[in-house]
Design goal:
It contains 24 helices and 26 strands. The chain is of the alpha+beta class. β14 and β15 form a beta hairpin. The chain is globular.
């Protein structure tokens, strides 16, 4: 597969996955199956592993988090609700500490660490005034969450007033009769989870009621807490575990260990599996023990969180980009199981890309029944020689995404069938193509119903049209009412009332939601067009330089490539998109419908996120070194010519210089690529602290 084709496929995958993330995590209304989503995400992971320099902070592989849904009131957090960088081995834990310990104050106490389970649930922020629970919010994008106070009140383990007198209603070990004072204002961070036993009971009830079952306890907890009807939440067994104080207007403990005990005394439920260590070797040994121990706890744990115990020291250590230096998440290795591959299905994406997925005999993997898994792409399927009827190894990496690792060849009976590449699109029946040196197989029929439905629902999701999911989009396409997103603005009330399931109120609400998007900011409209590689971040970047879609349509590739942060493949995709007659017609329909297609240019401010950091650059980068060095300087960093003990990072491109690279390894200087640099200058976050592409867009 050619390098430029890989980059374009990566951009395409990110665009589509970010859309599905929005549907799943924000609206709780997924429009593809778990296996279809997994197929897209694992293909992206595989391509990024092949081309690590392409990993960017806005990639769905970096990102976990959600934008607040319109159905809830938005709540701004008193402080950012951040997440941590990750480590997957003892060596990586040591490297983390070696890297960050230099930022601890000279007068800091001897280091100690607290290790706690990394709970696999939904982060919540709990506000108390004079001991009374007054507000609860989800994490959202880390800065703004959703007000779910009413739903949280239904959780029996959440104290409605603290401190709790008498016994221990939380059931998590608070000493009886404990007397403790509380600040008049206290904001606590916790995790809403569902115990595995309760999750299994809930799914049995869902099955008996012929309702959709949940994929895993995390999805069940998240979906339950985001119910608009709190009566539904009250019927589901959510529990809570708390672990941090975000804000207080009075004295609070000075260490993490004391904080856990303090929260427990107040009556908050706290995990009984936290531990404190004064030796990093003991921390690592404890983490390694938990790899086998994780199945002994009653809830899903996808890793451990290691935190500097002293809170003053931790705060003084600051941030790298938007990840706190004073903590790291130890991620458990993926679980594996074997089962039989029954059939291979094919998903059609909005760009026409066909993606295979496996239909499996049900198998338990990490407490979850797996029936579908990704197969990455057809090239990977052929390379691994995966056949229908094979016994296959399935891995659930990070306790989230199941994928087929490969066949167990010694268990073959000779009855397995070699999979044949599809010759026609499963949606429209038209012939498919397989471009030379490209992994993907495409349906090139622009009238393909599945592609049209996906494109319309993508447009609706990015434009924030509430109530228009993929099911509705597919129905509108099937009835011939729309062919693209612009047609939504021309829908007639009488036509919608003829559709099954559309009452007058729902039709009026939908039409009102569509009209409300006519004044969306230009960046959001641009992202909704579905141009390859133009998600939220790139749309924001482009609208800082072009005041309207008309001026952007006149830009040539050279001018677009001159914009810092724009790659040549995305620039070419933009030029080619606007050159197509049907796309120009699409823009004209938007204009005639009254959709806002212009704005005033507002340049985003530059933050000094690299203050005090020293960089050395080596190897070939995507831009001239002078430009990269200037970017570092603009954000407060310094660039020097050689690696020394004072060097904070070696920025390495392709074919890095041997002497600088060896010196950095010798001194254990962190070696990063351009994608990591982009993270550090605030264009995204790692792991589940990343804002989604759509969350980057103004409302």
């Amino acid at each position: 597969m050619a390098q430029n084709e890989i980059a374009e496929r990566i951009a395409q995958l990110r665009d589509e996955i970010n859309y599905h993330n929005y549907r799943y995590y924000t609206l709780n209304d997924p429009t593809v199956s778990d296996a279809e989503y997994d197929a897209l995400l694992d293909e992206l992971r595989a391509l990024e592993a092949e081309r690590p320099e392409t990993v960017t902070p806005d990639s769905p592989t970096q990102r976990v988090g959600a934008q607040p849904a319109e159905g809830f009131v938005k709540v701004e957090h008193p402080a950012p609700i951040l997440s941590l960088d990750k480590a997957t081995s003892g060596d990586e834990i040591r490297a983390w500490w070696e890297r960050v310990s230099k930022f601890a104050p000279e007068d800091a106490p001897s280091p100690a660490w607290v290790v706690e389970p990394k709970l696999d649930g939904l982060t919540v922020v709990l506000h108390y005034e004079d001991g009374l629970f007054i507000l609860g919010a989800t994490r959202g994008n880390g800065y703004v969450g959703e007000d779910v106070t009413t739903n949280l009140r239904t959780i029996r383990t959440l104290p409605l007033r603290v401190p709790i007198g008498g016994g221990d209603p939380s059931g998590f070990g608070r000493p009886k009769g404990s007397e403790v004072t509380i600040p008049s204002r206290l904001v606590v961070r916790g995790e809403a989870i569902m115990l595995i036993e309760d999750f299994e009971k809930l799914n049995r009830r869902q099955t008996e009621a012929e309702k959709k079952v949940f994929a895993n306890p995390r999805n069940a907890a998240a979906g339950t807490l985001r119910q608009l009807d709190p009566r539904v939440t009250a019927t589901r067994p959510i529990t809570l575990l708390c672990y941090a104080i975000i804000e207080a207007d009075g004295p609070v403990p000075a260490t993490q260990w004391e904080t856990l005990n303090y929260l427990r005394k107040l009556g908050f439920p706290v995990s009984e599996h936290g531990a404190r260590f004064e030796s990093l070797d003991e921390v690592i040994a404890y983490c390694e023990e938990w790899i086998e121990k994780r199945d002994t706890v009653p809830y899903e744990v996808d890793g451990l969180v290691i935190k500097v115990d002293n809170l003053t020291t931790r705060a003084a250590m600051g941030m790298v980009g938007r990840a706190p230096r004073g903590g790291v998440a130890f991620k458990f290795p993926g679980r594996e199981a074997t089962t039989r591959l029954l059939e291979i299905g094919v998903n059609v994406g909005r760009t026409g890309a066909l993606t295979p997925f496996a239909m499996l005999e049900p198998v338990q993997l990490g407490g979850v029944t797996i029936q579908k898994a990704t197969l990455h792409n057809f090239e990977d399927l052929e390379r691994k020689d995966i056949r229908i009827g094979d016994t296959v190894t399935v891995r659930r990496a990070g306790d989230v995404i199941p994928y087929v690792v490969g066949p167990v060849r010694e268990k073959r009976t000779g009855e397995e069938k070699v999979y044949k590449l599809p010759q026609v699109c499963p949606s429209c029946g038209e012939p498919v193509i397989s471009p030379e040196e490209e992994v993907a197989v495409y349906c090139v029929n622009v009238a393909c119903p599945e592609q049209r439905a996906r494109r319309v629902s993508y447009f609706a999701a990015v434009m924030d049209i509430e109530g228009l999911g993929e099911r509705t989009a597919r129905l509108l396409v099937e009835r011939g009412l729309v062919q693209d997103g612009a047609d939504l603005y021309y829908l007639k009330r009488e036509d919608l009332l003829e559709l099954e399931g559309f009452a007058e109120k729902s039709v009026d609400n939908l039409l009102a939601a569509i009209r409300a998007t006519q004044e969306r900011p230009l960046a959001r409209t641009l992202a909704a067009l579905g141009i390859r590689g133009v998600g939220g971040a790139i749309a924001q970047l482009l609208t800082q330089h072009y005041a309207s879609l008309d001026t952007l349509a006149q830009a040539d590739q050279e001018k677009l490539e001159a914009i810092e942060g724009m790659g040549p493949h995305t620039a070419r995709a933009v030029v080619e998109w606007f050159a197509r007659p049907r796309h120009r017609e699409f823009i004209e329909k938007l204009r005639q419908a009254g959709v806002k297609l212009e704005q005033e240019i507002a340049t985003a401010p530059t933050e000094s996120l690299l203050d005090g950091l020293t960089f050395v650059i080596t190897g070939t980068l995507s831009r001239p070194r002078k430009e990269v060095a200037e970017t570092i300087k603009q954000h407060g960093g310094k660039v020097v010519g050689s690696v020394s003990g004072k060097t904070d990072y070696l920025l390495a491109g392709e074919s890095p210089g041997g002497s600088k690279y060896r010196k950095a390894r010798q001194l254990e200087t962190p070696i990063i690529d351009e994608a990591r640099l982009m993270e550090m200058i605030g264009q995204g976050q790692k792991d589940n602290s990343d804002e989604e592409q759509l969350a980057l867009l103004p409302k």
